[in-house]
Amino acid sequence: MSAVVVVGAGIIGSSVAYHLARRGVPVTLLEQGPAPATGVTGDSFAWIGGSGGHWPGGARDLREYVRADYRRLEDELPDVALRWTGSLSWADAPAPDPLPRPGQFRIGRSDIAALEPNLRHPPRQAIHTPSDAGVDPTALTHALITAAKAHGATVLYETAVTSLPVTNGRVEGVLTSSGLHSAAIVVLAAGTNVPTLCEPLAADLAIAASPATLARVAAPSGLVKTIVARPDFEVREVRDGELLLVVPHVEGSAAALAQAAQDALQHLKTAFQGSDQCHLLGYRTARRPMPAHGPVIGYATHDRSVYVAVMHSAITLAPTVGRLIADELVTGRPVSELKRCRPRGH
Predict the structure, then answer these.
(1) Domain, as residue range, for 230
(2) CA-based diameter of the chain, in Å?
């Protein structure tokens, strides 16, 4: 197959580059930042399965493959290790918890306490999803890039794409701060930056930047055992001694955001015994790409020279999407699993 340029070294671009390189495709991965996962990927809660999440449009068609693809990555990449802790979620009383889906179970207070022994006041009931997991998104992205390079991929940082030059009506690669990188196909996986690079997608990505604030918290190892999704916050252990805490987003000043992070930390301390020594390591707001109709994956030009991959939740879907995109580009045949993810008009 001819050369491919992938734009964006977040989790999606890195997964696409890895799966292409593994199949022998000459691939160049370009990133405007100094390292991979410096954008929204590094600030993701990275809840794999996301039983409390939203699966719009074609995301529902990909859902069934997610766990198997993550298990496959664990086998292929020795540095990838997920925390298959399961999740617990519950709503504010008296609002009813959502009905369990296949693989979920409604459990009572004693079972909740067994799963989360440090929880001060377990709710009367919660939804337990044993197969849910969490991953360190930055470590995963680094592992994908390391493996892609081992299979021959070229990876360039601090290389911003400025335009997609066209010759005889066809995109011939990308123009960057370091010059032209020629390619038969350009894959745009740069999140909220994609509409500026590919104007025909502006309508698909009209709702493209949803803010989310994530705090990192130093904590006693094992304080939180599962992925906990409470009405007032979500929290999980990303690595021993460090928690990820979702902070309810507030618009306004830096001081207001700092106060929101402190408030979320206080909620955590109130909820979990043994948390007195917990303290903030930092917090940051990222603007997630949120296509209005679900993932946008497929050729963005009729000459098939530009391919786009933008979605939420990118962390959950990355291994599956990377595999399917590689299948599609290598074989030249559309894969049925992506049928409902296509850019409109393609």
Answers:
(1) 87-130+210-288
(2) 68
Which residue's entry shows tokens 């410096």? 38
**Tell me, what DSSP letter sits at residue 226?**
S
Q: Are 239 and 263 members of one domain? A: yes
Q: In angstroms, rounded to a whole number, what is the distance separating the alpha carbons of residues 221 and 319?
A: 28
108 and 149 both lie in a single domain: no
Q: Based on the domain organization, do 176 and 217 belong to the same domain?
A: no
**Are 148 and 195 found together in one domain?**
yes
Same domain, residue pair 74 and 153? yes
CA–CA–CA angle 120, 220, 112 (5° rounding): 35
Distances in whole angstroms, Cα of residue 39 to Cα of each of 9, 49, 190: 9, 22, 9
Tell me, yes or no, if the pTM score tops 0.85: yes
pLDDT tens column, 164-218: 998 888 899 999 988 999 999 999 999 888 888 877 666 655 545 567 789 999 9
Structure tokens at 72: 């496959």
| Domain count across the chain | 2
Q: Measured between alpha carbons, how far is 233 from 298 in angstroms, rounded to an integer? A: 35
pLDDT along the chain (346 residues), means of 10: 93 98 97 93 87 73 94 93 94 64 90 98 94 94 97 97 89 92 95 81 58 91 96 92 89 85 95 97 85 89 92 92 98 96 79
Same-domain status, 144 and 281: no
Looking at residue 181, the DSSP 8-state letter turns out to be E
Q: Is 275 in contact with 197 (CB distance < 8 Å)?
A: no
Query: Do the domain assignments include residue 15?
Result: yes
Task: Quote the CA–CA distance of 228 and 122 in Å, as a whole number.
Answer: 11
335 and 266 co-located in one domain? no
Tens of pLDDT along 21-63? 999 999 999 999 999 999 889 888 999 986 445 678 899 999 8
Whether 62 and 145 map to the same domain: the answer is: yes
Residue 296 falls within a domain, yes or no? yes
Both tokens assigned to 41: 């990927």
| CA separation for the pair 230, 91 (Å, rounded) | 7
Give CA 266 to chain center in angstroms: 27
CATH number at residue 62: 3.50.50.60
